[in-house]
């Protein structure tokens, strides 16, 4: 055995002794909750209103742990035209015992229905209980944080970029309009709307909904001003438009582009695929035309005026940019939203009913969204959309997603950190709200 | 019969029983463990004789070292693990009986011859110092002789065990 | 069984009722002293095998006569699974064979698919990949820097390693959202860009890690007991290492400066400065020292990468369904544990037709019988710990 | 009144239970304190906090909680185990560890059992614990246990020698094997000033090995032998072994403090508190070593004992004898 010279032994003792004098690295977990980053893959949250039962997530899941049931339903045509079928979500469950948290489902979801939430305390004593149904998945959506801004030199995802540009334009124009309004004593809503239109018209895809902003709510002016500097605002904007605002998108009658259909059939595509693609092609064309028409007739109020939801969306954005997304700003969203339905035509604004969400899915071309779009970037959407959608569900009544104060106080008292308490309180509120609504017989539809 | 004698009686019974079990036990590890008891009771007897130093040295050397060594050796070689027994052959039994009886007779004869019926009174506590004096003054030659013998045995064992 | 053994003249060690552990006892007549070999199963559930590796050891006393690693307890058929998964799913999958170096694994997959598709990856993505890969390397090495002394009985380095890992882990979690299975690479780039401030955090971490490395040197490497336990133990000479296909820190400790980052640079490893540390004796001590040195080199690379990430996209636009064209491609990367290669044969479908992995641990562990022969049983732990393997990486 | 109380205390049958109770109290509190200290000190040395919950304040009641847990656990005896030996082993290990506390001088007149060979009594008692270990190892019917037991036995035999020799050097220096006398003949600085400082280190190392504490914990090396002779033990029996270990730390620290550090003597006010402080300090070192060092291999451990410690302690004995005979004062 080599001689124990002892210097190394003493040095070792020195290291341990030095460490003893330093503060420990331990985190007192159950007492002090970890502050998880926005991208944390804690649990997958579902915003069921956004789900169109496209099954992409279930198909892409490497271990097939997503279970989706749906049924088809005929929707009566609005004003003439043919009846359409759409898929209605009956069940959406994720087996977290199987899930390997790769995040592919969140990534592929074209409608931002799935999000990562940093919640992680959902252990169960039985493995079957780890299969969580829609209700639970929906609850987690309230704790989805705002996404982190990207590192310098990063290229924004396309939809975020366009949304940001749109909003900046809106903000600029709105500021101008406000200026004008101050000059001319009685505020005329029309110019503001007019101002919004061209800007929005430049946007594409997801943000297109902004184009239909109506002057019904006075909100855009102050709100957009707030939103201007936020880079991540785009996320919120994008998310919102995909969700709440989608119904407000340009309405076109569904049809089939015969040329495409024939071409595809000739190319050997199956009838179903060909039909779907042809339909998509038709919709694209029709929508483009509609938008062009809108842009042309700028002074005309837009045909689908259910906008306030997304008009309010930017409100939330600065909050999302800053700290926890659950700032009061986001709570205002439904407040604005409630103002809308008065003027809103029944069909598109009734987001709460599944029919409300459906046309959007139909009308949208999923391919338009770049697949590598930043999925978590729309994380804020959860915050915004959630209340928005829930409020819409509650129809025109004054139901806002707020923090359930009672729960909140109780949790804070119990030592929960602010973020968790707020999220939970919000969830509690949402639960109550929905319960109340169910009892009330679903006045919305 | 005074207290001392009662204590001796108890110790003697325990020691004797344990000794009997050492040789009759069919499990070699048990035998070694009974040996511990036997040796401990001998240490107790030393205590009764007011020779605490000898008593504790007995514990250190015999219980702490010798029996441990025996156990060590048994376990290293062929200890039946668990409750399994390792029965001796008849030849081994006979041999053991012969040796045991021989030793017993020898001691009976020697001790009986030396002391007979004489009653030896307890001479009071032997101080460790006195023990040391007698060992290193009066009996230093035998002491050294024994140590040299032990040393020779030790070296011999090492020489035998080394294979290279 | 026990009785049988009893009839043979008694076994050195007998199992309770002969269940569970198998014992093979062979008499050795050619020895002066009558000794018996004992076969001992180390593993599949044994603390020293971190996972389910089983080593069948034949012992003469405490001397190991023969050691056979028995693998396959954790076989999850990655290669076959990969034939039924699209490329993104494969990336999520390969995270898991070597579970402490996920980015390096998925990087290899991304690279092999990109090579087959002849895809140009944006510069920014490549630099960020390098950053992540090197941090992963540090994470992985820290794991072994902590666990190896633990196997030798020093409990503290493990906690230090995890303290350090936690700090790096925070960065990784912030960037990718995951902690172990990061799933950050994609064919053609990355999942998403870094969050704002990540590069600064990475910059801050480097000097802190350097400072901490000093502690390991004082606490472990400089410790005489550690040296006594590891020096001259498990010597793997360079030629033997090469013949077994050993790679990574083990090969470098044997004195061969082989590192795919140098010899066959991928990403931008040819544009950064770093050295390949080598050892002299190829023993356990050298392997540990090489591991620490490799962390230093990784930190050096990270330092350079931090300053060189250009602005730009991190992704190329790909069709919704990625299909690699007909043909085959091979990519060789330096994973933390050694050379990690992927070989892919594609038939222009969304899944590969064949997906072969060459994982470092498998080859490294195959040298175990050579290393263990003639060592003492306690040294087996010292040798096995210094093999730096992950069982999932062996069995796949 | 006071006289009456003194008379009462002089009565053997009154005094004995009092002494027994006092020793038991020491036995029950100090190992727990050291156990708690091990939890906390080791945790902080490893950049952790250690137990924080039990007992509200920094987990002070952690060991009590552990004890309650152990009591509740099922006491499993393996089917193939030798039941009696298996069950008795913890007691054989624990009882000598308790008895040692009876012979330690806690203060000028605070020696529960005074014996003029007190030193040998303590050494003898601590050597008996080995039997318990061997019993546990063998009776478990488990290869790992058995190997742990064999290693433990080999180690304990090897280190017994330097331990006794170092202690003998002290006895020689003090001219008595009576622990109380040994303390009285030391200054408060003890015997660590002078050649006996080597003895202190030899004794400390050997005691560490005797306790099978790191870096000499090969017998329970968890990465090789699972848990050595304790592998099959559960519940209360396991707790007894654990208690034995902590009691061993305390008693060995106490003996070392008595032999080399001046026992209950201190710079200001002599008394048991000094002994307590020294015991805690030595226990701290034991824990410190555990959290810093890897373990030695069995053969290294043996050669360290036979080739280094034994010659050194023999030489020390010679030196001390020489100095004593020629009255070169230490």
Percent helix range of chain A: 40-55%
Pattern of helices and strands of chain C: HEEEEHHHHHEEHHHHHHEEEHHHH
What portion of the residues of chain A fall into strands of 2 or more residues? 5-15%
Give the number of helices of chain C: 16
- Tell me the Rg of chain A in angstroms: 25 Å
Shape verdict of chain C: globular
- Give the structural class of chain C: alpha+beta
Strand order of the main beta sheet of chain A, please? 2-3-5
Mean pLDDT of chain C: 81
Spans of chain C with pLDDT under 50 lasting ≥5 residues? 1-32
Order of SSEs of chain A: HEHEEHEEHHHHHHHHHHHHHH
Oligomeric organization of the protein chains: heterotetramer
**Total helical elements of chain A:** 17
Using the CA coordinates, give the radius of gyration of chain C. 23 Å
> How much helix, percentage-wise, in residues of chain C?
40-55%
Terminal Cα separation of chain A, in Å?
86 Å
Mean pLDDT of chain A: 63
Write structural notes for this entry.
The complex is a heterotetramer of chains A (445), B (164), C (396) and D (330). Chain A has a domain at 169-349. Helix content of chain A is 48%, strand content 7%. Chain A has 17 helices and five strands. Chain A has helices at 7-21, 56-60, 104-108, 134-140, 158-183, 189-202, 220-227, 233-243, 258-266, 271-296, 308-321, 328-339, 346-349, 354-363, 379-393, 405-413, 418-439; strands at residues 43-46, 66-75, 84-95, 114-117, 131-132. Chain A has a three-stranded antiparallel β-sheet. Chain A has a two-stranded antiparallel ribbon with strand order 1-4. In chain A, a hairpin with an 8-residue loop joins β2 (66-75) and β3. In chain A, α7 (220-227) packs parallel to α11. In chain B, α1 packs antiparallel against α2 and α2 (28-48) runs antiparallel to α3. Chain B contains six helices and no strands. Chain B has one domain (3-86, 123-161): NADH-ubiquinone/plastoquinone oxidoreductase chain 6, subunit NuoJ (Four Helix Bundle (Hemerythrin (Met), subunit A), Up-down Bundle). Chain B is mainly α and 164 residues long. Chain B is globular and about 50 Å long. Chain C has 396 residues and is of the alpha+beta class. Chain C contains 16 helices and nine strands. Chain C has helices at 2-7, 78-82, 87-94, 102-117, 123-151, 156-176, 198-221, 224-230, 238-244, 249-253, 260-263, 284-308, 360-366, 368-372, 377-385, 391-395, and strands spanning 25-28, 35-42, 54-60, 63-70, 185-186, 189-190, 327-335, 338-346, 354-358. In chain C, a hairpin with a 7-residue loop joins β8 (338-346) and β9 (354-358). Chain D is globular. The termini of chain D are far apart. Chain D has one domain (77-329). Chains in contact: A-C, A-D, B-C, B-D, C-D. The B-D interface holds B 27, 29-30, 33, 36, 52-53, 56-57, 59-60, 63-65, 67-69, 71-72, 75-76, 79, 81-83, 127-128 and D 78, 80-83, 85, 115-117, 120-121, 123-125, 127-128, 130-131, 134-135, 137-139, 141-142, 146, 149-150, 153-154, 156-157, 160, 164, 177.
């Amino acid at each position: 055995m080599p001689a124990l010279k002892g210097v190394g032994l003493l040095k070792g003792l020195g290291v341990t002794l030095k460490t003893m004098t330093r503060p420990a690295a331990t985190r007192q977990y159950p007492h002090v909750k970890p502050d998880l980053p926005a991208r944390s893959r804690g649990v997958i949250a579902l915003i069921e209103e956004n789900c169109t039962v496209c099954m992409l997530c279930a198909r892409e899941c490497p271990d097939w742990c997503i279970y989706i049931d749906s049924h088809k339903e005929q929707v009566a045509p609005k004003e003439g035209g043919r009846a359409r079928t759409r898929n209605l979500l009956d069940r959406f469950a994720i087996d977290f015992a199987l899930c390997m948290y790769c995040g592919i489902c969140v990534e592929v979801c074209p409608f931002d229905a799935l999000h990562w939430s940093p919640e992680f305390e959902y252990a169960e004593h039985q493995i079957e209980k780890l299969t969580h149904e829609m209700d639970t998945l929906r609850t987690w959506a309230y704790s989805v944080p705002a996404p982190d801004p990207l590192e310098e030199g990063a290229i924004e995802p396309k939809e975020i970029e366009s949304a940001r540009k749109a909003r900046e334009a809106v903000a600029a124009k709105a500021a101008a309009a406000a200026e004008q309004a101050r000059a001319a004593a009685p505020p005329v809503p029309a110019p503001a709307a007019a101002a919004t239109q061209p800007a929005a018209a430049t946007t594409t895809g997801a943000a297109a909904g902004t184009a239909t902003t109506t002057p019904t709510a006075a909100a855009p002016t102050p709100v957009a001003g707030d939103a201007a500097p936020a880079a991540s605002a785009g996320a919120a904007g994008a998310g919102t438009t995909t969700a709440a605002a989608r119904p407000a998108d340009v309405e076109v009658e569904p049809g089939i582009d015969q040329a495409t259909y024939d071409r595809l059939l000739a190319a050997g595509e199956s009838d179903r695929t060909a039909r779907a693609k042809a339909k998509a092609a038709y919709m694209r064309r029709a929508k483009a035309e509609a938008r062009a028409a809108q842009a042309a007739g700028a002074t005309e109020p837009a045909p689908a005026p259910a906008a306030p939801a997304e008009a309010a969306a930017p409100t939330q954005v600065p909050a999302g940019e800053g700290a926890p997304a659950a700032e009061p700003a986001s709570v205002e969203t439904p407040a604005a939203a409630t103002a809308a339905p008065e003027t809103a035509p029944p069909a598109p604004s009734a987001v709460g009913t599944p029919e409300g969400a459906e046309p959007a899915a139909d009308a949208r071309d999923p391919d338009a969204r770049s697949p590598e779009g930043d999925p978590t970037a729309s994380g804020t959407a959860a915050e915004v959309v959630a209340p928005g959608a829930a409020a819409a569900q509650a129809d025109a009544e004054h139901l806002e997603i707020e923090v359930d104060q009672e729960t909140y106080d109780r949790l804070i008292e119990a030592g929960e950190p602010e973020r968790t308490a707020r999220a939970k309180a919000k969830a509690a509120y949402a639960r109550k709200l929905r319960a109340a609504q169910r009892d009330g017989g679903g006045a919305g539809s | 019969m005074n207290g001392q004698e009662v204590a001796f009686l108890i110790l003697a019974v325990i020691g004797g029983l344990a000794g009997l079990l050492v040789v009759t036990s069919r499990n070699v590890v048990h035998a070694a463990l009974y040996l511990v008891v036997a040796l401990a009771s001998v240490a107790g007897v030393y205590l009764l004789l007011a020779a605490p130093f000898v008593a504790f040295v007995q514990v250190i050397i015999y219980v702490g070292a010798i029996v441990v060594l025996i156990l060590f050796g048994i376990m290293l070689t062929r200890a039946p693990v668990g409750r399994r027994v390792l029965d001796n052959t008849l030849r081994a039994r006979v041999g053991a009986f012969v040796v045991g009886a021989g030793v017993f007779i020898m001691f009976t004869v020697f001790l009986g011859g030396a002391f007979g019926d004489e009653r030896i009174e307890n001479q009071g506590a032997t101080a460790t110092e006195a023990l040391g004096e007698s060992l290193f003054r009066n009996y230093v030659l035998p002491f050294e002789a024994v140590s040299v013998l032990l040393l020779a045995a030790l070296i011999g064992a090492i020489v035998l065990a080394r294979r290279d | 069984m026990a009785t049988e053994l009893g009839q043979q003249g008694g076994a050195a060690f007998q199992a309770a009722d002969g269940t569970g552990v198998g014992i093979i006892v062979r008499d050795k007549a050619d020895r002066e002293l009558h000794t018996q070999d004992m076969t001992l199963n180390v593993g599949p559930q044994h603390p020293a095998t971190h996972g389910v590796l089983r080593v069948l050891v034949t012992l003469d006393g405490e001397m190991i006569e023969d050691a056979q690693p028995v693998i396959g307890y954790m076989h999850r058929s990655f290669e076959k699974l990969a034939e039924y998964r699209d490329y993104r799913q494969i990336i999520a999958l390969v995270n898991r064979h070597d579970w402490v170096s996920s980015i390096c694994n998925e990087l290899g997959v991304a690279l092999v698919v990109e090579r087959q598709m002849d895809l140009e990856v944006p510069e920014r993505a490549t630099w960020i990949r390098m950053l992540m890969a090197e941090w992963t390397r540090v994470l992985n090495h820290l794991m072994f820097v902590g666990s190896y002394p633990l196997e030798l009985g020093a409990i503290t380095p493990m906690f230090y390693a995890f303290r350090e890992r936690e700090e790096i882990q925070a960065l990784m979690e912030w960037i990718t959202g995951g902690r172990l299975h990061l799933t950050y690479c994609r064919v053609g780039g990355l999942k998403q860009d870094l969050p704002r401030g990540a590069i600064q955090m990475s910059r801050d971490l480097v000097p802190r890690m350097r400072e901490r490395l000093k502690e390991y040197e004082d606490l472990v490497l400089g410790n005489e007991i550690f040296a006594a336990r590891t020096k001259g133990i498990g010597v793997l000479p360079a030629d033997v290492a090469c013949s077994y296909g050993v790679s990574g820190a083990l090969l470098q400790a044997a004195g061969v400066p082989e590192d795919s980052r140098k010899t066959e640079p991928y990403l931008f490893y040819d544009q950064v400065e770093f050295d390949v540390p080598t050892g002299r004796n190829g023993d356990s001590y050298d392997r540990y020292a090489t591991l620490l040195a490799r962390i230093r080199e990784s930190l050096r690379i990270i330092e350079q990468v931090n300053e060189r990430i250009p602005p730009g996209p991190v992704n190329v636009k790909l069709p919704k369904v990625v299909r690699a064209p007909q043909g085959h491609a091979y990519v060789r990367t330096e994973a933390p544990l050694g050379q990690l290669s992927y070989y892919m044969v594609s038939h222009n479908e969304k899944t590969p037709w064949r997906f072969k992995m060459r994982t470092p641990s498998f080859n490294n562990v195959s040298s175990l019988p050579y290393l263990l022969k003639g060592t003492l049983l306690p040294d087996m732990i010292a040798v096995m710990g210094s093999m730096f393997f992950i069982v999932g990486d062996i069995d796949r | 009144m006071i006289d009456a109380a003194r008379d009462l205390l002089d009565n053997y049958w009154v005094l004995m239970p009092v002494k027994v109770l006092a020793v038991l109290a020491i036995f029950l509190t100090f190992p727990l304190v050291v156990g708690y200290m091990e939890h906390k000190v080791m945790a902080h040395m490893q950049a952790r906090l250690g137990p924080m919950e039990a007992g509200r304040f920094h987990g002070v009641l952690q060991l009590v909680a552990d004890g309650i847990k152990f009591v509740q656990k099922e006491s499993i005896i393996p089917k193939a185990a030798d039941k009696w030996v298996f069950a008795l082993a913890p007691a054989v290990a624990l009882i000598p560890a308790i008895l040692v506390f009876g012979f330690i001088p806690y203060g000028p007149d605070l020696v529960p059992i005074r014996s003029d060979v007190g030193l040998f009594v303590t050494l003898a008692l601590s050597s008996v614990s080995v039997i318990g270990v061997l019993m546990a190892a063998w009776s478990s019917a488990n290869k790992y246990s058995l190997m742990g037991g064999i290693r433990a036995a080999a180690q304990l035999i090897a280190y017994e020698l330097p331990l006794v020799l170092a202690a003998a050097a002290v006895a020689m220096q003090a001219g008595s094997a009576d622990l109380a006398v040994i303390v009285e003949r030391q200054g408060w600085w003890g015997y660590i000033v002078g050649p006996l400082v080597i003895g202190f280190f030899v004794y400390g190392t050997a005691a560490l090995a005797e306790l099978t504490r790191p870096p000499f914990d090969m017998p329970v090396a968890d990465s090789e032998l699972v848990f050595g002779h304790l592998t099959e033990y559960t519940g209360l029996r396991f707790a007894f072994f654990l208690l034995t270990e902590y009691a061993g730390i305390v008693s060995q620290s106490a003996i070392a403090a008595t032999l080399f550090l001046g026992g209950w003597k201190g710079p200001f006010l002599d008394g048991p508190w000094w002994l307590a402080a020294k015991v805690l300090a030595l226990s701290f070192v034991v824990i410190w070593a555990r959290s810093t060092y890897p373990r030695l291999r069995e053969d290294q451990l043996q050669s360290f004992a036979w080739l280094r410690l034994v010659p050194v302690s023999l030489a020390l004995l010679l030196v001390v004898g020489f100095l004593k005979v020629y009255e070169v004062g230490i």
